[in-house]
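quick one
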Amino acid sequence: MANAPFVLTIAGGGSTYTPGIVKSLMVRLNDFPLAEIRLYDIDTHRQNTIAPVVEKVICEHSQTIRFVVTNEAKTAFSGTHFVFAQIRVGQYKMREQDEKIPLRHGVIGQETCGLGGLAYGLRTIMPMVELIDLVERYADNAWIVNYSNPASIVAEGIRRLRPQARVLNICDMPVAAMRNMAAILGVDRHDITVDYFGLNHFGWFTKIWVNGKDHLPELRRHIAQHGLLTADAAQTDPQHADPSWVKTWRNIKPIMDHFPDYVPNPYLQYYLMPNHIVERQNPDYTRANEVMDGREKKLFKAAAEFKRTGILPDAFHVGVHGAFIVDVACSLAFDLRQRHLVITENRGAIANLPYDAMVEIPAYITAQGPEPVRIGNVPLFHQALLAQQLASEQLLVEAALEGSYEKVLQAFTLNRTVPTMQQAKAILDEMIEANQGYWPTLNQACHQGEAI
Ligand code: NAD
Ligand code: G6P
Ligand code: MN
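structure w/ 6-O-phosphono-alpha-D-glucopyranose:
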C-alpha cells in the first residue's frame, strides 16, 4: 500500500450514495488524506448528472484534490489505492422487478432478501468479478471495499471465483442499528462495542457493551415498546426514516417478543414474519418506487438546481453509510486494527457453521484485511436458520457458475420466504424472462413435474 495521500475510485460513481460518501470523505481528510477522487460508472449519463454535485462537495472542502469522471476502466483504476464499489446491476428498473415478481405470487419481494435478493445475486456475481479483474489489471494491491449488494452472495461468488482478491465486503445495517441503540442508550455510537453473529442481513446482536457493561437488558425495555425506532429517527438518519423503514425498526419488537435473547438484524423480519409483511405491502408500489420518488428524485433535483443556479441545496448528509466505509478504509490503510462488523470467511469463528461460509461477524481490520473474532457455537435455533439461508445462497452461486436451472430452483425452494416448490418455479420462470441479458443462461432440465 502506497503512502497517503491516496487515489480513490468510486465504482458505481452514478450511485445515489456517491455525494454522501464523498462528503464523508471530505470531513475525514485529516484521517484519510486524498490526492485524487475518480468516479467510474458504465452509465455515463447518470454519472455525468451527479458528477457536478460531487465536484462541488469536493471544492467546498479542498482545493488540491484532483477529480476525474470516467467510464474507462484504465483511467479509473490505473494506480488507484482504494476502490469503493457500489454498483447496482440492472439499476432500479430491475430492483423493481425483484420486488414485484415474487409479490405477485404472495411471496416476499425485497432488494437483498428472499427471491429478489437471489435474483439480484444472479445478475451481480459476474459483473463484480469483472470489476475485480479490471482493478487488478490496472492497479497494484488496491483494496476494494465493497457495498454492492446482495453482499453475502457477492462475497460467496468472489470467494469461489477470486479467493485471493483484496476485497472487503461490508454492510451498513448493523452500524445503522448501533446508531439507533446509541441514541436509545444516550451514548455515542463509537462507544458501543457489540458481539454479533450471522450472515449478511441475517444475524443477531448478542451483547451491547458500553464501558464493559452489557446494555442489552436496558435496550430490551425500549424494544418491548418501540422496537429499535428512536424518537429522533428523521434527524439522525434520513435514509432509514422513510415510512417503510419506520415499520422495519418497529418490527424488531414482535421478533423480540417471541425471541428476547438477542437483537435481530432488521432484515430478519422478512424471514420470520413474511406473511405479515406481504399482507401489508402494496405490490404495485414497493421500496424501489419509494427510492425513485425519494432519494433519487431529490438528488436529480439538487443536480438540476445546482446547474441552473450554481447553488448546491443542502441535500446530502454524512450518515452512517458514508462514515462506516471511511472508518473501514482508514483501518485498512493505516493498520489501525479497529473492530468492525464485516463479511468474512468463517474459518471456524462460528464453530458450528461451515468453515468456508461467508459470515458477518466482528473483526479487527488490519492492513492485510480482517482478523475475525472467535464466536464459538451458536444456539441450535439460530444455527439451523443460518444453515438454511447459507445453503440457499451457496446453491444460487453454484447455479450461476454451472448455469443450472435446477440449482436455482433448489436455492429458491430452500429459501425460508418461499412456501412451496411450485411458487419457487413460477417465480423463477417469470424472473428468467425479466432478467434476459443479465442472468447467465440456465440449462433447464427436460422433465417438467406437475402436481397430481
Ligand atoms: P444506483 O442505481 O443509484 O447506483 C448504482 C450505480 O452503479 C449506477 O449508476 C449504475 O449505472 C452503476 N453500475 C451498474 N453496474 C455497473 C458496473 N458493472 N460497473 C460500474 N458501475 C455500474 O443504486 P444505489 O441505490 O445508490 O445503490 C448502490 C449500491 O449500493 C447497490 O448495490 C445497493 O444495494 C448498495 N448498498 C449497499 C449497502 C450495504 O449495506 N451493503 C448499503 C446501501 C447501498
Ligand atoms: C440498508 C442495507 C443495504 C440496503 C439499503 C437499502 O442500508 O444495509 O444493504 O441496500 O438499506 O436502502 P434503500 O433506501 O435503497 O431501500
Ligand atoms: Mn446491507
